[in-house]
Amino acid sequence: MAAFVINDTMMKLVFADLDLFQSIFMRGLMLSLLTGLLVSHRRQFRYRFSRHDARLMVQRVIGEIGAAVCFLTALYQMPIVNAVAIIQAVPLVLTLAAALFLGEQVGWRRYSAIVVGFAGVLIIVRPGAEGFNAYAIWAVVAMLFMVLRDLSTRKFSQSVPTLFVSFLTALGTVIFTGAVVLTRDWQPMAAQHYGLLATSSGFLFIGYLCSIKAMRLGEVAFVSPFRYTILLWAILLGILVFDEFPGFWTLIGAAIVVGMGGYTFYREHRLARRLAVTAKPTAE
């Protein structure tokens, strides 16, 4: 989570001088190189997707592109902690989407947590309030694209290599943003811009690797709530780098979103344990 916020911080610094799409394109190019080297080392380039997984891969790339463009657009104009706080509602929206589109059973407790969590997002966004930043809507749309990305990922076959998926996602982002960059004026880049973008892509790469490792080695119910530590890093770096102090209502809304997200993880863990016990064969 610290690595992800450092990545966001570097990008926000780059946006002071460079075009949004040019920045995303350059970061994606560097990230593709890093991920591609590791995929090559593990000899995963030979993997062939089934038709089902190929369709999901396309959906995931669309979700990632939309999430990156919308979130970074919001980050360009908003305090980093506000943008990060809004997208912490992703697990809540993901639970709702899984119930609506995947037929997963969701009880009244988790539905209640989703409703309260959405109220927390509205407190952060505060539409109609003085000082409301319309770019908060971009962060909300980014959250929906992230749900599309994560929902597609959840439906992949077990045999699909995670790193290869990450590489193709980064490559898809490069192709899309590269096409957009061709229609815009290329802005000259100094050594500091390359340094910031290299640092951004490097920490994004580290974030991906650590997340994959944590989810594979640790128990999901224990590891998942740690995603909310990203808010602590966002607050810290927002203050130290941008002199951005989170407002009272932002902290209240973030606390509600985190609380409801943590409760949802807890309920899902309890349900998984109950199903595991029910499915366990009895001794004769």
Feature tags:
mainly alpha
Q: What form results from the Cα inertia axes?
A: globular
Rg, alpha carbons: 20 Å
Describe the biggest sheet? none
- Could you estimate the helical fraction of the residues in percent? over 70%
Please report the total strand number as a whole number: 0
Termini separation comes to 47 Å
Helix-strand category: mainly alpha
- Note the run of SSEs as H and E: HHHHHHHHHHHH
Count of helical stretches: 12
Overall mean pLDDT: 88
Number of domains: 1
Give me the secondary-structure topology:
Elements: H1 2-14, H2 20-41, H3 51-77, H4 80-86, H5 90-101, H6 108-125, H7 136-154, H8 162-181, H9 191-217, H10 220-223, H11 230-242, H12 248-279
Q: Summary?
A:
75% of the residues lie in helices and 0% in strands.
Account of the 3D structure:
- This protein has 284 residues and is mainly α.
- It has one domain.
- 75% of the residues lie in helices and 0% in strands.
- The chain is built from twelve helices and no strands.
- The protein starts with a helix and ends in a 5-residue tail after the last helix.
